[in-house]
């Protein structure tokens, strides 16, 4: 039996403090009603189920825990996550998984603008579509999109790898389509499996950095 | 930051609860804009009785307004106080009431005018202001609200949103326009007057100018997207419409929820969660540079 915390009666700060010194490994959070910073900063191997829609920065800085949002998430879900798993059963707003260093973020629905902005090692799997400027300046990690991607995908990308099954509206600066080799199909299959999805990896295309932007070119000296 | 809330009712049986719902929504976005607030309400019989022109004013008490208008041979004018705002209504054409107000109360600032709509603004905590406005007892078919965190001009009732510069029109803004000084100059050259140095007023004047020139609301907002640079989520309302538009980057938040009974827009989900039937609403984020318009 999970420990139940009802946010209609308990402030978010008390919930987060309880999750930081946990006396149980399984938690259910009721009535989030769009509250911000729910289940942030967890460092233990816990399972947290949030029953409803959350506001900004849910499960931010997560380490080791498995946090599931049974609803939609606002801006910056799992931002700066280090490890563990965050799953959003509905849609996520902008900047999902921003700057996250590790772990797995799964969004069953759509993610809006700037999904995976400045990602630094996280794996993100989106069941639906993603908005514009996703994976902007992504440094490391993998972004998998089962639907379509919006404008300027992967703008100023470093070494994050992006897989998209549907249509890409436009690629950002220095982002190019790349060959899908065996090792990519294998890692994609593994990512889809870990997100409990059954899409065929062969239906995806791979995008990455052309590496033209982040090396200084002596020809451009006059521009500075 | 700044917080936006808006509610457009489709189900007439909810109209007695408009102010109560709008007030609850406003209370959820206080942290986004704690320095001042304003609302526009459409259809309240006390603030805007049917068939009467309505002008919302700052800088004149109700007693001053009634006395000055009585002296100007407008004995039927009624003035209602709502915090810093005085709402005046009279059985005249809107143009005649505006002219009479300009003559009788030259130092007052008109912050809204129309038939069937009143604008209420003030400074201070938005929850206290909503109480001071008597918002919870307001009724009607549409309302918009804004909580302000001032960036571009001073914290005054004049600087609070909504900006209402055309008949029955209101604009609330989260963001900041980068090229407002240029557009203000262009509009001034075309004869458009301004009350403040506020960037959002330029947006409202631009929309009102386009509507006056014959554009519909959708067209006016498309033109705004073409002409304005900067960050914006806008909620724009008129005597029959409710519209939302965001800039191309879309970093200023916006959520729309829609049921068969109402359409609502807010900066954050928690402001929508207070609405009846939210659990079955269609909830979505407006796409960048796409104009959404709902008509009565």
Please explain how this structure is put together.
- The complex is a heterodimer of chains A (224) and B (296).
- An 11-stranded mixed beta sheet of chain A has the order 1-2-3-4-5-6-7-8-9-11-10, covered by helices on one side.
- Chain A has helices at 12-20, 182-194; strands spanning 3-6, 26-30, 47-51, 66-69, 85-88, 104-107, 120-126, 140-145, 161-164, 175-178, 205-209.
- Chain A has a single domain (3-213), classed as 3 Solenoid (Pectate Lyase C-like), CATH 2.160.20.60.
- Chain A is 10% helix and 23% strand.
- By secondary structure, chain A is mainly β.
- The model of chain A has no long low-confidence stretch (mean pLDDT 97).
- Chain A has 2 helices and 11 strands; from the N terminus they run βαβββββββββαβ.
- In chain B, helix 5 packs across helix 6 and helix 6 packs across helix 7.
- Chain B folds into 2 domains: 3-48 and 122-295, 4-Layer Sandwich (Glutamine Phosphoribosylpyrophosphate, subunit 1, domain 1); 49-115, Alpha-Beta Plaits.
- Chain B contains 8 helices and 15 strands.
- Chain B has a 7-stranded antiparallel beta sheet with strand order 7-2-8-1-13-12-14. Chain B has a 4-stranded antiparallel beta sheet with strand order 4-5-3-6, with helices on one face. A 4-stranded antiparallel beta sheet of chain B has the order 9-10-11-15.
- The longest helix of chain B has 14 residues, at 199-212.
- Chain B has helices at residues 18-27, 62-71, 94-104, 126-133, 180-189, 199-212, 217-227, 269-272; strands at 3-9, 36-42, 53-58, 78-82, 85-90, 109-115, 117-123, 142-148, 170-177, 230-237, 241-246, 255-258, 262-266, 282-284, 292-295.
- The mean pLDDT of chain B is 96.
- Chain B is α+β, with helices and mostly antiparallel strands.
- Classes of the chains: A mainly beta (224), B alpha+beta (296).
- At the A-B interface, loops of A face helix 8 of B.
Oligomeric form: heterodimer
Number of helices of chain B: 8
Helix content of chain A: under 10%
State the shape of chain A. elongated
In CATH, the architecture of chain A is 3 Solenoid
CATH level-3 fold name of the largest domain in chain B:
Glutamine Phosphoribosylpyrophosphate, subunit 1, domain 1
- Our estimate of the beta-strand percent of chain B is 25-35%
CATH T-level fold name of chain A: Pectate Lyase C-like
CATH architecture of the largest domain in chain B: 4-Layer Sandwich
Number of domains of chain A: 1
Mean pLDDT across every amino acid position of chain B:
96
């Amino acid at each position: 039996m999970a420990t139940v915390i009802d946010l209609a009666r308990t402030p978010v700060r008390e919930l987060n403090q309880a999750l930081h010194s946990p006396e149980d490994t399984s938690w259910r959070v009721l009535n989030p009603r769009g509250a911000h910073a729910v289940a942030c900063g967890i460092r233990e191997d816990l399972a947290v189920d949030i029953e409803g829609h959350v506001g900004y920065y849910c499960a931010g800085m997560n380490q080791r825990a498995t946090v599931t949002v049974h609803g939609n998430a606002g801006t910056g879900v799992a931002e700066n996550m280090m490890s563990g798993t965050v799953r959003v059963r509905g849609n996520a707003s902008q900047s999902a998984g921003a700057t996250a260093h590790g772990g797995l973020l799964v969004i069953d629905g759509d993610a809006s603008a700037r999904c995976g902005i400045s990602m630094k090692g996280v794996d993100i799997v989106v069941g639906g579509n993603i908005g514009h400027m996703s994976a902007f300046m992504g440094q490391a990690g993998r972004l998998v999109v089962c639907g379509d991607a919006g404008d300027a995908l992967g703008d100023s990308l470093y070494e994050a790898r992006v897989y998209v099954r549907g249509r890409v509206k436009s690629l950002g600066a220095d982002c190019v389509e790349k060959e899908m080799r065996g090792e990519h199909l294998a890692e994609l299959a593994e990512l889809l499996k870990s997100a409990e999805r059954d899409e065929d990896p062969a239906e995806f295309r791979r995008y990455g950095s052309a590496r033209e932007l982040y090396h200084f070119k002596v020809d451009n000296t006059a521009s500075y | 930051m700044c917080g936006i809330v808006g509610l457009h009712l489709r189900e007439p049986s909810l109209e007695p609860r408009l102010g109560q719902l709008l007030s609850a929504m406003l209370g959820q976005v206080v942290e986004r804009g704690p320095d001042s607030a304003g609302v526009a309400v459409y259809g309240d019989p006390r603030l805007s009785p049917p068939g009467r022109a309505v002008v919302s004013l700052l800088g004149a008490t109700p007693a001053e307004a009634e006395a000055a208008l009585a002296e100007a041979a407008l004995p039927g004018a009624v003035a209602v106080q709502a915090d810093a705002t005085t709402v005046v209504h009279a059985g005249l054409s809107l143009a005649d009431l505006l002219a009479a107000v300009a003559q009788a109360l030259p130092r007052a600032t008109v912050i809204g005018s129309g038939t069937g709509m009143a604008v209420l603004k003030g400074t201070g905590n938005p929850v206290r202001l909503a109480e001071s406005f008597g918002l919870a007892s307001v009724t009607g078919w549409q309302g918009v609200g804004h909580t302000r965190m001032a960036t571009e001009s001073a914290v005054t009732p004049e600087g609070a949103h909504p900006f209402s510069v055309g008949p029955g029109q209101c604009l609330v803004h989260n963001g900041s326009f980068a090229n407002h000084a240029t557009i203000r100059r262009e509009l001034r050259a075309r004869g458009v007057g301004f009350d403040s140095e506020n960037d959002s007023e330029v947006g409202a004047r631009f929309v009102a100018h386009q509507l006056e020139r014959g554009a519909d609301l959708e067209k006016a907002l498309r033109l705004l997207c073409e002409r304005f640079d900067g960050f914006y989520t806008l909620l724009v309302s008129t005597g029959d419409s409710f519209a939302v538009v965001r800039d191309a980057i879309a970093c200023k938040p916006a959520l729309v929820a829609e049921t068969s009974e109402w359409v609502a827009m807010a900066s954050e989900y928690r402001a929508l969660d207070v609405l009846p039937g939210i659990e079955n609403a269609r909830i979505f984020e407006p796409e960048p540079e796409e104009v959404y318009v709902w008509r009565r």
